[in-house]
Specification:
3-stranded antiparallel sheet; about 15% helix; about 180 residues
Length: about 180
């Protein structure tokens, strides 16, 4: 067939960008907060509000979430774009990313892990199901609390996951 070509998943990921980017925060055994860069997440239900995140089985964050059964998805503001991107370049097993990259944290309302202070949106989540998907685990979680900073500009992963950029998206009015 003329005009069609076979491509690999890496090419498809680049062509299907941008992807909403965030930092997953989870609580370590010593009480510190682990941060992980993520674009593999999606909403999966409205009632109750539910989302899913997909994490490598080899990763530290998945281990922490399996133990605590909770996490926060922080859709970060452009003011910490570079620091947030750096969270995807090292492991939380050996680095306290919040400290290393100067990412301020704040208390959550309903879960024990902290939130990223510079967030556009923060979703406090409790895991309701974990599914094995080949070399990844899919965590399905109920959104217990959501907060919005409407004046912030969120970032998106572009060109696959090689960089972050902003897109201006208007927040809904209070009546929406």
């Amino acid at each position: 067939m003329k005009g069609k070509m076979n491509v690999n998943i890496g090419m498809i990921q680049k062509l299907s960008s941008p992807n909403p980017f965030g930092l997953v925060s989870s609580q370590m055994e010593n009480g510190e907060t682990n941060l992980m860069a993520i674009s593999w997440w999606t909403y999966v239900s409205n009632k109750p509000a539910t989302l899913a995140i997909c994490l490598s089985k080899r990763g530290y964050t998945g281990e922490l979430i399996k133990k605590s059964r909770e996490f926060a998805l922080n859709i970060v503001d452009e003011s910490i774009k570079e620091a947030a991107f750096q969270c995807g370049t090292c492991s939380g097993r050996s680095v306290n990313k919040a400290a290393k990259f100067n990412i301020a944290l704040e208390e959550a309302k309903l879960i024990s892990t902290k939130l990223v202070k510079a967030h556009k949106i923060a979703l406090e989540c409790r895991v309701v199901q974990c599914l094995e998907v080949s070399d990844h685990d899919l965590f399905v979680a109920e959104i217990l609390e959501a907060s919005l900073n409407p004046e912030k500009n969120q970032v998106f992963a572009v060109n696959g996951y090689s960089s972050l950029s902003t897109l201006t998206i208007a927040a809904p009015s209070k009546g929406s």
